[in-house]
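Changelog-adjacent note: as of this version, every example in the card shows the full chain rather than a window. The one below runs 296 residues end to end.
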Amino acid sequence: MTLRLAVTGLKGQVVSALIERAPSDVEITALGRPQLDLGLRHAVLANLRHTGCDAIVNAAAYTAVDKAESEPDVAMRVNGEGAGHVAEAAAELKVPLLHLSTDYVFDGTSHRPYREDDPTGPTGAYGRSKLAGEQKIAAIHGNHAILRTAWVYSPFGANFVKTMLRLGETREEISVVADQIGNPTNAIDIADALLVLARRLVADPSPELRGVFNLTGTGEASWADLAEATFSIAEKAGRGPVRVKRIATADYPTPARRPANSRLDNSKLRARYGLALPHWRESLEICVPRLLQTRE
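Full-length structure tokens:
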């Protein structure tokens, strides 16, 4: 039986990964601007009504973390109000909604990985807008899985790993923050998980499959760790060596404050769905060669 997924967004990392990973019995309808603008309620409802979908994946978002500090209203319009509009459509269509959220809903001060029921406390405009989206979905449509992910990289779009490889073409040493830790997550692994989750949500009405879940790669790293691993894989593939100079967050100021601890505890996802994403190093070993090939 064909699973029909309506996905918001056209060119993002997760959307691109879903289109690549969808098997023959999954039909993806990707919707994005200008036809579908998350901030326009009528456009969201009208476009999603006509998809005939079995489930909706809300992967579109305003993701410019630093820029959000200077235009918080734009971030809130897309990530907050927009998520509510998608939830309205899912409720009207009576289909499950899978919504991608972020570690930025937390303040990053915990000394352990965050669980889904830990108190939220975003420190920036981006995190506040994503938390508002979560809250609107929860209030509008109970048939949802809110999936908090973090440190997303992939062969697609703009991301940290791709940036490191580009900088490494012309530099022998790159300074990278070493006192922020998180769970690097390949968008391809997110897509594979979304396909599993969507099938379960469509087939099984159990309440325990609904709610908020963390969805990140296994294992933790600092940004410097991730950079070093990236350059190590690239060097084995024939690239020249690149040194990583480990610096503190204070040495690399940004408009938006980054969480010192972005680690998310994925045990709830394993318990409810029997699902765990691969270790980030394993997924990175697959991703980096692809990125190198596209730059040749």
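Structural remarks: The first strand starts at residue 3 and ends at 8.
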